[in-house]
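Board notes (copied after class):
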Amino acid sequence: MKFFRKLRQTLLSEGKIGKYLKYAIGEIVLVVIGILIALQINNWNQKKQADKEFKTAIEQIYTHLHAAKEVDTWDISVVEEQLELCKAMQSNIDSFSNFEILRNAHFLDWMSGTGTRLLNFDDFLSKIEFDPNDKAKSSLVFHLNQFFIALYDALDHDFMNLKEKYFEPIFKRNQMPISTGQVGTSIKMAKEGEYTILSEYAINKIDSLKYSNEFQSALQSTEHRIKRILGILKFRKAESEAVREMLLRYDDNLELKYDGIIIEGTAINGENSQPMNLTNANEGIWTAKMKLINGNIKFKSTYAHYFSWGGSGGKLGELKFWGEPIDVTSGEYFITVNFEKMEYKIEQK
């Protein structure tokens, strides 16, 4: 700039007005170009940051939909079991003992965590905005809002209307409630009656209740309620899968953001937990080398306490959301978890 200033002064002193004006205009043009370049660079940086935040948000949604799929699968299996049990009690109630009838009735009244959200999606939806210059992004934002605000809210409302218990009022009217109030705090308690004390009076009272119109009516109403819940769960699972596929069509490089995977269980010697290492972000593969003692292990995320995985109880190596603890024997192990394929490997070294 000093060079141009001296040049202008020289031209003025020599009376070369025409050349002076040309150089002055040229200097102004250069300044304007510099400003425009700086603005463009700033816009690029802002867009780059916005794109980064957008991808982070949709990866979080993608990850939570992956978890929601596993939760829905688990819920569906429980509700299907309830439906079969309800039908069996209607078709041949005499095949069940009084204790089983009473315990099963409480299980049929029980609902799992259906209808509850794994994530406050509003936090992430607030970070993704319509972009009039990007049709793909705007379409994605529109459908995400439709799914989480309209559909999810509607399904949650439906679940709230299906929480009525049909057997509990009957038992209370006949002064035969469960004394501990523990049934329903977990699926294991609800199914097996664990930690549940059923009074002798309540068990004997079933003899005069199981054939009554109100008890049979409760079974019929429960079957209707369970069928509605099952329909909602299957619909929600299908819609969640459709949204996950839509996210992958928008960006096929999305990663599962299960942050801070750790191993917990009785087999970890002297430690509360053992951290795992992320070795493949695209497939959500985590690994760990560790020494274990006789006991069991499960996998958890430090990001959210309800993200917990174990074995399926059937196929070896099949990872299941909220699954059973995996038994291991003492030794050195290399452990791998693949969240995309929902598999685990425990290889002894």
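Comment from the instructor: The longest strand covers residues 285-292. The domain at 261-348 is CATH 2.60.40.3620 (Immunoglobulin-like).
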